[in-house]
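F.,

This is the one I mentioned.
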């Protein structure tokens, strides 16, 4: 039997170029890919311009985000005010940035802002608005209440009622005295919408206590055996009478000297207070005013008034506790700027009055 041989070599597969139709399909697919890439690039550039517009941010605008506003509502508001350029893009930007729930309230934003900056401001929450109240030295509690009432949401009547109720008390307020007359501190106060009349009054009293303590009240012994509260009354008299800083210590000394000499204080400011704070147009106190029947009238009643008559500042608090050394018993307005002349005798005092009138100063 003869051997049979087999050829174990396989024929190689030969590559044949694609037919014409297949080539056209590949070319078309390539063109589609190019078009898509170009379109995506164009959309990307367009979106980038919307998200981060060219140029600097514009003027600031105040916006109020209402309660219950959705992201779409806020986007429309921002676009209407020119803060962002496209509400739809902003909605997608917020969504793809992780989403957010923005709070209702007041915001300050700039026109032509980058969306990232806008989201950052909104994420911080609404800005807190503050009211400002300036309370100068020398006001009565009633006058302070009037200023408090100038804030739209506050009531002067409510403030004054609280200040006389004993609900808020000073550390320097004696038992049995409910009025905070002279026990609130003159300053400029900033407060937000969460604070009411009681909160504001409490801050005024706390600041007064702090300043009085720093001035030495409760630590230093008052002169002439006066109590701490009586010395605060002196401070209110000094505040009401002094017109230039250098007079405070001297007026305090006159008050202390008269108390020690058992003389009537005869302070015009107490008469004005006794008349309900009614000042005459020219600032004068008439002889008829001196007859007003009131424990605050120091022309008729010996000693100090029963309470302070005004709110003293730090300098008057210090002057009442540390009067300038001297033997004066009298003073009179002597200069046009309100500075006083001080005298030890009644004769010298009358001479100073005549000299002041000769200079055209109304004593």
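My design for it:
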């Amino acid at each position: 039997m003869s051997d049979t041989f087999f050829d174990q070599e396989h024929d190689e597969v030969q590559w044949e170029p694609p037919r014409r139709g297949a080539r056209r399909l590949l070319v078309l697919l390539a063109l589609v890919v190019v078009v898509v890439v170009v379109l995506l690039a164009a959309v990307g550039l367009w979106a980038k311009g919307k998200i981060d517009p060219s140029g600097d941010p514009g003027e600031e605008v105040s916006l109020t985000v209402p309660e219950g506003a959705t992201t779409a509502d806020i986007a429309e508001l921002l676009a209407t005010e020119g803060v962002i350029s496209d509400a739809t893009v902003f909605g997608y930007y917020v969504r793809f940035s992780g989403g957010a729930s923005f709070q209702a309230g007041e915001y300050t934003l700039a026109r032509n802002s980058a969306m990232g900056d806008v989201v950052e401001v909104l994420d911080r929450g609404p800005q807190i608005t503050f009211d400002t109240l300036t309370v100068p030295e020398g006001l009565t509690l009633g006058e302070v209440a009037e200023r408090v009432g100038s804030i739209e949401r506050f009531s002067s009547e409510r403030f004054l009622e609280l200040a006389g109720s004993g609900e808020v008390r000073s550390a320097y307020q004696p038992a049995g005295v409910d009025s905070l007359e002279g026990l609130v501190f003159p300053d400029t106060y900033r407060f937000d919408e969460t604070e009411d009349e009681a909160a504001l009054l409490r801050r005024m009293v706390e600041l007064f206590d702090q300043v009085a303590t720093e001035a030495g009240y409760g630590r230093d012994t008052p002169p002439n055996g006066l109590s701490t509260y009586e010395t605060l009354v002196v401070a209110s008299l000094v505040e009401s009478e002094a017109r230039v800083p250098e007079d405070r210590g001297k007026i305090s000394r006159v008050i202390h000297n008269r108390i020690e000499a058992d003389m009537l204080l005869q302070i015009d400011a107490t008469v004005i207070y006794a008349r309900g704070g009614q000042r005459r147009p020219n600032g004068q106190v008439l002889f008829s005013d001196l007859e007003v029947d009131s424990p605050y009238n120091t022309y008729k009643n010996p000693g100090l008034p029963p309470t302070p008559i005004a709110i003293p500042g730090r300098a008057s608090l210090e002057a009442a506790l540390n009067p300038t050394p001297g033997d004066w018993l009298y003073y009179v307005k002597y200069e046009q700027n309100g500075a006083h002349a001080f005298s030890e005798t009644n004769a010298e005092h009358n001479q100073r009055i005549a000299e002041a009138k000769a200079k055209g100063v109304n004593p």
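The chain has two domains: 60-124, 134-328.

Talk soon.
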